[in-house]
Amino acid sequence: MRQEQNNIFAGIDWLLVFLFLSLVSFGWVNIYAASRTSEDLDLLNFSTKHGKQFVFICFTIPLIVLILFFNSKFYEKLSSLFYVISIASLIGLFAFGKTINGATSWYNFGAMGLQPSEFVKTFTALAIAKLLSDRKYNLRLTKNQIKAFIIIFTPAFLIILQPDAGSALIYLAFFLVLHREGLTLNYILFGALIVLLFVFIILFGYISISICLIILITIGLLYAIYRGGKRFIRFNWHKVLMIYLVALLFTFGTNFTYNSIFKQHHRDRFEVLLGMKKDTKNIGYNSHQSELTISSGSWTGKGFLKGDITKGNFVPEQHTDYIFSTVGEEWGFLGSSFVILLFMLMLYRIIYLAETHANKFGRIYGYGVAAILFFHIVINLGMVIGLMPTVGIPLPFFSYGGSSLWGFTILLFIFIRLDAHKNYDW
Amino acid sequence: MKRSFLLYFLITFIGVLFIGRLFQLQIIRGANYDPIHNSAVKTVYDYPERGYIYDRNGTLLVANQLSYDVMVQPNKVLPLDTLEFCKLLKIDKKQFLKKIKRAEKYATYKPSVFLKQLAKEDFAFLQEKLQKFKGFFIQKRIIREYPINAAANVLGYIGEVNENLAKNNEYYQQGELIGKDGVERQYEEYLRGKKGKKFLNLNRFNTVTGAYLKGKFDTLPKNGKDLTLTLDVKLQVYAQKLMTGKRGGIVAIEPSTGEILALVTAPSYDPNMLVGRKRSKNSVLLFNDTISKPSYDRGLLATYAPGSPFKMMNALIGLQENVINEQTSFKCYNGFKYGKRANEFMGCHCGIIGRPIQLKTAIAKSCNSYFSHTYKRIVEKNNNPSQGLDHWHKHVSSFGLGNYLGYDLPAGQKGLIPNGNYYDSRYKYSWNGSTNISNAIGQGEILTTPIQLANFTAAIANKGHFYTPHILKEVDQNPIDNPKYTIAKKTTIDKKHFSPLIEAMHEVFKTGTGKWSQVEGIEICGKTGTVENFVKINGKKTQLTDHSILVAFAPKKNPKIALAIFVENGGYGSEIAAPISSLLIEKYLTGIISEKNNYREQRILNLSLEKNYAQLN
């Protein structure tokens, strides 16, 4: 039983640190390219986006030291407190928050703004890890499942109210964690089915999908009757009725939600993505410009600071959510694939390390980190390369923004801290 | 461990999917990358000079001139001294306000034409003065110029490309000029050259920030090619002059090459009418005149019954099908009775009653009876009229009649040459050579255009072959090598059958219907025609003055010119068409009209048929 060393860097996984540094610095290079204007060539002009991002990056150093300074036990013990503070900070927004772009998701501290939702996911991951690592906890029990769901959906719900549906979407990532810890796959499959049905209903209309569902269910029932015989009919007729009813309710409900609750701009996004509308000027403008920008990069790209579409500022929000389009234009297929490979390597490494933890808390938290990062990457890159609807969330470590950079830094380095100590007794 | 596979799998799956998508975007789509589609790049076009057009002797027909428009971009206009400005442009304040309003209505942020086509002397003066009026500038444009008022129907005109084409064609942008008719349209690709492109970087506010990739994709403009036409503009102008006051068409072809020497439609217009400031006003005038139709090329588009010249066709077919020979004779009794009923009779004016008539005389005197007999024999050969008419149709078609000739001008008509099927379906198989006896004398169903008939005459002059008529002779001084126009097409009539026919045609101008139009020293071969025509006036079928027709070639040996002349409602072919043809032939072959024939020229020049046309209006 070894004692913990005083050196805070002992046992750290340098590969993860290296990946973190690579992504952050390459991210900054691209933010520089995207926000630079011809008049202002000063690298560290703090009124510019790249200047500010440079400051944000510098601030991660004391933050990292601080995180590494604390003992692993500290994070486990205080995880509940952190979680409560997180929820409080989200609720506080409704009283003290600042509204930007229609969403009340910011605290304003003078010149600086902080977006609590960027931090809350870290603490939710800690809370989930704490809950699931309890020896008496068994995920097979519905009661326990509900506890986990409450932890996950409380912050998600508060974020939806801001409203910032994109950031709330990330909380679905925790289902991957729950699944790893024993939750049945049915939840995820059911979710996937709902999404699939949703897409089909938009594409083909709810009437044809209802008819298809009825036919499918009937075929399934006939098969069940064929297998179960008379007994089946006698005992299950009310259940059978329920299945039909639920299926129909779902299709009609989806149709109603889509047409009456969704706003026109939501519908437009789906329809442009699904190819039902061709639009390169209005709602489709972002995606269209982003795709064009990436396409123009070809194999090796136009070179650093030579991306003319980036320079012309044609892609909106290019330094934040659409930063990857700059990579595509200036660094080409090779550069952008390399970034994807870096992200994949980071995720693989986190899962690999998490699986080696003897301590359940560390493993679950690690899994949470991987799942959150994975969701962010899929949603952000999927949007930028035109495979997913427009959902404005940042690309981890890459996009401009202090809150998101610090949020992801804390998320990752708490795991690095836990991982460094995995061989010690806590 | 097993449960962690799901996330491993998802990460790998998404990674591969995204890299695949990047490959699709950057490598597959990126390969067709064209800066034109790049929103950060503005394309600026550099327009080449449009090619000039010359006639066969090198006379300039179409050139370019510069035109200067005063442009205005309303959002850049600053308050100005209206009085001074108006005085400068020689307009009054009311006009000024009207023009500004119109420009604003079009677009405040885009330049539009304020004042079209300044005089050249005003331009130099204004260019300097206009500097102080912000938002106004002068734009140079190239427009066409026609040094000679001739052949508007052949040359065509240029105009702004229509919206539809601009959208669907890669080359044209809205507002650019394109050939709209005639040679300008037919040879647009030669004439237009290739515009140069310059790519400039833009930012989001559409401000130019420099050359795109240091001009790597930029191209230089390539000037249009100069065209030499086959037209002889002197002949063309002369023919147009002779046609003043008449309606109709003249087509003259050089038989040995198929080159179109003159293509006249009357009435016509001055090509300069469709250029510049007066253009829109004039185009309404020209294109909305549905009565005299100056924009309608009668030489190419008008289908008339060919009349008597078509008798030569029947003669040739009769000889070829061996149903007649040079010695075959028929008798005429003031006409030809083709049925039992009294009205089944076709009159004849040949004036040789009850005596045997042979081919030569028949053509010289234009005997209807002779050709009725011939036509009947052709159709009823083998006692199968359908088959007989099909043979006849095959021969006629080999002269290019009944279908598009394939000449290089964008307007055309097929005409009509019936075949066996045509009457089978109309008469339910019960018909014979007499049923459509009018075909014998070129009336009935047969329809031809003047250019088809001119080509037919050229084929006779060549004794059995022709070159597809064409208007283009040289491109940038290089003779055309399109086999469509340089390889002779053979007709189905043997060469030996043409000699008696040509002798007969010569006889027409010596002793026959054309004898009053002889030219001393030139052996003209021809055939006059007079075509009945009817029109419905107030629902009543009314016979109008006949069309005057003539086909001719000269000289008899080694023919240099073959022509077809239609004068609508001109009366007998010998009265108007024949003297016109002899004047044209004399002018073309000798360059002048001899003193002896001056009276003929004067008569035709002074002859107006307007009173004949008045009853149509």
What does this structure look like?
Chain A is mostly helical. Chain A folds into 2 domains: 14-183 and 281-420, no CATH class; 192-262. In chain A, 69% of the residues lie in helices and 3% in strands. Chain A has helices at residues 14-35, 49-69, 72-96, 117-133, 142-160, 165-169, 174-180, 186-204, 206-228, 230-261, 264-273, 285-295, 308-311, 323-355, 360-384, 402-420; strands spanning 98-100, 103-109, 112-114. Chain A has a 3-stranded antiparallel beta sheet, with helices on one face. In chain A, strand 1 and strand 2 form a beta hairpin. In chain A, helix 8 (186-204) crosses helix 10 (230-261). The longest helix of chain A has 33 residues, at 323-355. Chain A is globular. Chain B folds into 3 domains: 43-229, Penicillin-binding protein 2a (Domain 2) (Alpha-Beta Complex); 231-265 and 289-302 and 563-617, no CATH class; 303-513, Beta-lactamase (3-Layer(aba) Sandwich), CATH 3.40.710.10. The mean pLDDT of chain B is 85. In chain B, a hairpin with a 4-residue loop joins strand 11 (248-254) and strand 12 (259-266). The N and C termini of chain B lie far apart (99 Å). Chain B is globular and about 105 Å long. In chain B, the strands form 7 sheets. In chain B, strands 2, 3, 4, 5, 10, 18 and 19 form a 7-stranded mixed beta sheet that branches. In chain B, strands 12-11-23-22-21 form a 5-stranded antiparallel beta sheet, with helices on both faces. Chain B contains 22 helices and 23 strands. Chain B is of the alpha+beta class. Chain B is 34% helix and 21% strand. In chain B, helix 9 runs antiparallel to helix 20, helix 13 (359-365) crosses helix 19 (498-510) and helix 15 (385-397) packs across helix 16. Classes of the chains: A mainly alpha (426), B alpha+beta (617). The interface between A and B is large, with 46 and 36 residues.
